[in-house]
UniProtKB/TrEMBL annotation:
Residues 21-71 form the Mur ligase N-terminal catalytic domain. This is UDP-N-acetylmuramoyl-L-alanyl-D-glutamate--2,6-diaminopimelate ligase. UDP-N-acetyl-alpha-D-muramoyl-L-alanyl-D-glutamate binds at residues 26, 28, 147-149, 175, 181, 183. Residues 104-307 form the Mur ligase central domain. It catalyses: UDP-N-acetyl-alpha-D-muramoyl-L-alanyl-D-glutamate + meso-2,6-diaminopimelate + ATP = UDP-N-acetyl-alpha-D-muramoyl-L-alanyl-gamma-D-glutamyl-meso-2,6-diaminopimelate + ADP + phosphate + H(+). The gene is murE. ATP binds at residues 106-112. Meso-2,6-diaminopimelate binds at residues 379, 403-406, 454, 458. It comes from the Bacteria. GO terms for cellular component: cytoplasm. The keyword Magnesium applies.
Amino acid sequence: MPVNSVTWLANYSTAVPQCELHSIQLDSRKVGPGDVFVAIAGVAQHGKDYIDRAFAGGAALVLTDSGAYTDNRIVVLPELVQILPALVADFYQHPARVLQLVGVTGTNGKSSITFFINQLLEQLTVKGAVIGTLGYGYYQQLTALPNTTPHFVDIQRILAACVRQQVQLVAMEVSSHALVQQRVAGIQFDVAVFTNLTRDHLDYHGSMAEYAAAKALLFRAGVSRAAVINVSDDYGRKLAAQCEVPVWAYGKAEHCHGFARYLAYSDVVATTNGYQLQLSSHAGDYSLHLPLLGEFNIQNVLAAMLALMVQGYDLTSLVNACNRLQAVPGRMEQFVFAQQFTAVIDYAHTPDALQQALQSLRLHCTSRLWCVFGCGGDRDRGKRPLMGQLAELFADHVIITADNPRSEDVMAICEEIAAGMSPDASYQIEPDRQAAIKLALVSAQPGDVVLVAGKGHETIQIIGSEQRQYDERAYLRQLVTEMSL
């Protein structure tokens, strides 16, 4: 999508060389021929230090906020940081105005909701895309991202590509970090979705109050046009009461009373492969079968459905499409063994997510419930004993192992988890993650369910400064084959 530099920057500067531009880059390593390199202050260094590298990569133009240069390809705009969101949107011709845009925030469920939105759209023959933890693009063929929510410079480029590909709706995860760091500046969402708020990222935010305040930034007037809020979550009810934009509520039926626009569930019955339940809403009542594990997935699906209802999609069509939903990779994903037990991989890495996963699987478990998990190093240490306590409370047997230990000692992390457990708890420590998983599986009996929590979709394990290739889903598939021989 080439852009004429003189036309584009006419409102911002008169000293612009005439050239054809292709995309805007913040990272000099990603600059290609015809690109614009934006040289502004980063966390550790200023982008001006990389101008030469950008030109070596083929940059046609550099924008920066200070300095004096004789090279007319370097344009100095003192107010660059302030005007950059509008400038980037102008460059890409405001793709957010063309697309339906859904932003999803909350501690747990963001990836699942964006995927369910895209699966439902596919059933309705509407082209969608996702941006989030698992990558961006078509939900079954994603391009990896370094962060859950990219910088707005990268988001605008992705959205522009979606427009060219005739995508109609993009569902994007919006992390608390991204909101505080203004990574979605200049982007207005048609719908903002709130899932839940539980302990996470306190190493960054410092307190639950600050963490909640970060999430609430997505629900301001001018940032979003409508809010879809889980009112079965304690903070969700508070957010709904103070929200600046129209609220559409979802959750358990008893929590949705009093809302004019809502989607609620009740009469939940667990089946061997999912749930049967009743839906009630301002648009009618339905019986629904969901082929998914985990009651929290009921709420995730309702959030996806309601976000689409806000955009005008028909509830009856959405209910019919739900019958064909599939688990998101690494989110309550089932692996059935010939020995008649089941392993489930889930990304649960917070106390609340672990508790919900175990409580949900208990409903589908006819014998013992196993839990294999660890905690990440160089992250919130306070949750470790709490997760140990919850694993003991909701599982029959626990195997504590490594997650991403990073610079910390694996055994020290495992022992901090075990410190939350009683002396007579049924647990053991196996620091090698693959060995821990295999130990649980060779010990499992018919009717058992083994939850392997924490890694989910991830394909690396961080040990020290090394990023080792580690695909837990591939390992489980391998074990299903090996143990069936």
